[in-house]
Amino acid sequence: IVNVVSLPALDRGASGMSAYGASKAAVLNLTHSLSRELRSSSITVNAVAPGFIADTGLIEAVPPFLMPGILESIPLKRLGSVSDVAEAVSYLVQAKYVTGTVLNVSGGYRT
Question: Considering only CA atoms, which of 31, 37, 41 is closest in space to residue 1?
Fold first, then answer.
């Protein structure tokens, strides 16, 4: 099982995103709880936490004047792609000895 959370669930949240951050934090808690509940059945439960991902609809809501600062704050200096997230999910699906883990897919960005 691979759940999708978000960076606001991992840290201090984001202004104007309290409901979103709270819902993703709930999914994060579910991920950790299920990883413990299902381990005796050898079912792994993990999550990915995407950062700023292009072509998802969410990034289009960011005011254009903020984009240079966002890109500067990402150590890899680019937005992520949907395929970056898909590769992370694929890894977690295949990893048989990884459970209860959140994989940060953000180019190194930290909230």
Answer: 31
> Is residue 98 exposed (0-12), middle (13-18) or buried (19+ Cβ within 10 Å)?
middle
CA distance 91 to 73: 26
**Distance in angstroms (rounded) separating the CA atoms of residues 25 and 13:** 9
Residue 20 is a catalytic residue: yes
**Per residue in 16-47, pLDDT tens?**
778 888 898 899 999 999 999 999 999 999 99
Catalytic residue selected from 20, 91, 97, 109? 20
